[in-house]
Amino acid sequence: MHKKKFLILFFFLFTPLFLFSQPKDNDKPGSKFRIARLKYSGGGDWYNDPSAEVNMMDYLKKNTTIDVDVPKFYTVDIASDDIFDYPFILITGHGNIEFSQSESARLKKYCESGGFLYADDDYGMDTAFRREIKKVFPENPMQELPFNHKIYNCHYLFPNGLPKIHEHDGKPPQGFGIFYEGRLCVYYTYETNISDGWADTQEHQDPPEKREEAFKMGTNIIVYALTN
Question: CATH homologous superfamily of domain 2-227?
Fold first, then answer.
């Protein structure tokens, strides 16, 4: 059962990680943590900045005791049962997103079974993401998380909530969540673009202090997802 698999997966942060009964080959994750990029249809560039997760995983290796797999760009198709092999999935992009009825049901099952979906607006996906996530959780609206939420202090301290990595429209950064049975299973960052701050320096020319903020907030998101 998927839920049992995730219960095994999530008890693991500060020691050699989860006892996971998948074959250890080049495609299937073993006992080590990976960030998987979610593929989706609709025309949006789900694949942009593939260096982001690679650098974030490398940062985790150097700054936490999380047992991280080889840092590289891992992807997973929303239509595949393979999503249940990953406790943490990232969705990002600039454009349109479309979830079919079956994909919405699969993503809902993923979240209800213990998976964590992190969505980061890369400037331009906000309207589509809000529309499509309602298909997944029609009765669980997104709600803005207060600054004292544990996701902002579980590893590094962010007393004022999300850091502002990219200006976009100049609005304040916001973090929204969807809860299932009291557990935060979807986290959405808007007007900040945390994952762009993980990308190679030459991609966006972010100064070192902004990149460091992005990596630290990314660490918080991942630590929270794996321990709550």
Answer: Domain of unknown function DUF4159 (3.40.50.12140)
